[in-house]
Each structure stands twice: as structure tokens, then as C-alpha cells.
């Protein structure tokens, strides 16, 4: 944890120095985002499923300015495919264990690859491919990544039955 904290502080300091000198940080994945008020939580699934592509960036805090940024997987990396979204996010070994690349989720390692993949998958000729990715992502999420499945796996790994986990009244 200390190593992670030091890396976050180093990223913040480096960004602060670059900002104070008016220097542009080339390793930044995208231009500064514009933030808009989002939809109600109850509407999120609808919006995820209607997007052509859902974008995720899991670089932690200001560590994108460092040579090797820290990655922190967010719940949206599971929520989006659970809703049937075509989701594109930073390529990490951990996410590659959870989803099959280009079949259940799209991954990128650079701005160039992100741009190429978005252009490729947004082309109208790829509508059927996106539809297959949506279906596969949703299927994988329901089968492997629901809270119920995750807790069931935890209980099994601990050698407990579900009845043992229910509160005693």
C-alpha cells in the first residue's frame, strides 16, 4: 500500500510541476474531459446498452503522467458489459482474465490503438460484430460476474454453505 501511495503522490507532484511550467503532458490518454451531469442511476443500464461503445479509463488518479501508471478497475468495467454494452478500456492482465479480448470487451494500450479500435468498431459495417460482442459480454457477466456468483465462489472457497452465511435471528 505504501508503494501505491508513493506512486500516486509522485504522479500528483509531476503533474503539478508540468502544470506550473505550462508544459503539456504527452502521456495523457485524452484531452481534458468535459463533465456533464449524468443520468439517474436507475437509467444507467439503459444508456450503457444503447451506446455504440462505452469508454473506460482505469488509470488511477494522476499516475497517467508516470512511465507505468497504476490501474484501478472500477465497477463500470463489469456494469457496462452486464448491461450489454460494448466496452473499451485500458488493457490489463487482470481484466484479460475476466473478459476475452475483442469478443467480450475491447482493450487498448495506447492513444493510437484506442483511436484505431474506435474507428474500426464504429464503422456501420461492424454493427453485427458489436452486436455479437454485446451478447457475449452480457452472457459472460451474468454467468461469471454477478454479485451472487461472486459471493457463492467466496463461500465455496471458504468451505461455507449459504445457510451458514445467513444471519441467525
Give the count of helical stretches. Answer: 8
The outline comes out as: globular
The low-confidence runs, each spanning 5 or more residues with pLDDT under 50, are none
Work out the strand percent: 5-15%
What does this structure look like?
It is a single chain. The chain is mostly helical. Helix content is 50%, strand content 5%. The protein is built from eight helices and three strands, in the order ααβαβαβαααα.
Brief descriptors of the model:
169 residues; mainly alpha; 3-stranded parallel beta sheet; 3 strands; globular
Can I get a quick summary?
With 169 residues, this protein is mainly alpha-helical. Helices cover 50% and strands 5% of the residues. It has helices at residues 2-20, 44-50, 76-82, 93-98, 111-122, 127-144, 147-158, 162-165, and strands at 54-55, 87-90, 106-108.
What is the strand and helix layout of this fold?
Blueprint: H1 2-20, H2 44-50, E1 54-55, H3 76-82, E2 87-90, H4 93-98, E3 106-108, H5 111-122, H6 127-144, H7 147-158, H8 162-165
Parallel strand pairs: 1-2, 2-3
Helix pairs in contact: 3-6
Amino acid at each position: 500500500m505504501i508503494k501505491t501511495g508513493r506512486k500516486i503522490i509522485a504522479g500528483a507532484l509531476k503533474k503539478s510541476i508540468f502544470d506550473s511550467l505550462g508544459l503539456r503532458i504527452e502521456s495523457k490518454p485524452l484531452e481534458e474531459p468535459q463533465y456533464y451531469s449524468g443520468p439517474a442511476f436507475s437509467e444507467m443500464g439503459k444508456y450503457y446498452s444503447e451506446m455504440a461503445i462505452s469508454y473506460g479509463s482505469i488509470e488511477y488518479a494522476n499516475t497517467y503522467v508516470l512511465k507505468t501508471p497504476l490501474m484501478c478497475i472500477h465497477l463500470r468495467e463489469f456494469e457496462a458489459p452486464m448491461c450489454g454494452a460494448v466496452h473499451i478500456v485500458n488493457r490489463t492482465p487482470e481484466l484479460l482474465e475476466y473478459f476475452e479480448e475483442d469478443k467480450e470487451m475491447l482493450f487498448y494500450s495506447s492513444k493510437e490503438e484506442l483511436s484505431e479500435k474506435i474507428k474500426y468498431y464504429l464503422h456501420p459495417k461492424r454493427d453485427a460484430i458489436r452486436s455479437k460482442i454485446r451478447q457475449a459480454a452480457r452472457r459472460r457477466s451474468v454467468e461469471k460476474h454477478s454479485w451472487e456468483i461472486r459471493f457463492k465462489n467466496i463461500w465455496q472457497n471458504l468451505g461455507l454453505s449459504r445457510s451458514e452465511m445467513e444471519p441467525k435471528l
